[in-house]
Every structure is written in C-alpha cells, then in structure tokens.
Amino acid sequence: MIEAALLPRCSTCKQVPADGIAGGLWLCGAFLCADCLADLSAWTNEDESYRALKSTLDRLWQRPDWRRHLASGGRP
User: Fold this and answer.
1) CB under 8 Å to 71, separation ≥6 — which residues?
2) d(Cα 26, Cα 21) in Å, to the nearest integer?
3) Any bridge partners for residue 32, and if so which?
4) Global pTM value
C-alpha cells in the first residue's frame, strides 16, 4: 500500500513548505507559509502576493460558515 501525504499549499505563493503543516499558519481555511508571513508587512497593493491573499480572504469572507471560527476559536 502506498501512503500519500496531504501537505498544505500556501494561498499566496502556491508552494508547499518544506516543513509541511508546521511551516506556516492556518487562517480560517487559508494556509500561509512562513516565508509569506515574514514578507507580509512589506507587501503593497501592487504586489501579486498581496492580491492573491486578498482574493483568498475575500472568498473565505463570502462563505456562510466563517463566523463559527470566530465564536469557537476554529473548533467544531
């Protein structure tokens, strides 16, 4: 039997971090790798990474179940 690893993909750079799930942060259904998190404060409106993150967060905001993450701290 072949075991498959489910690894997260960064919402902005679309890369899988070398450390897997430990190499970033889950934010209400979006994953950000450590490299993008480190660069986040330097992004401007013109950066493609900023636009990708904004688009991802806009899509998450439109989901009707996003409020449960606020109320329960992400726990079901």
Assistant:
1) none
2) 9
3) 25
4) 0.65
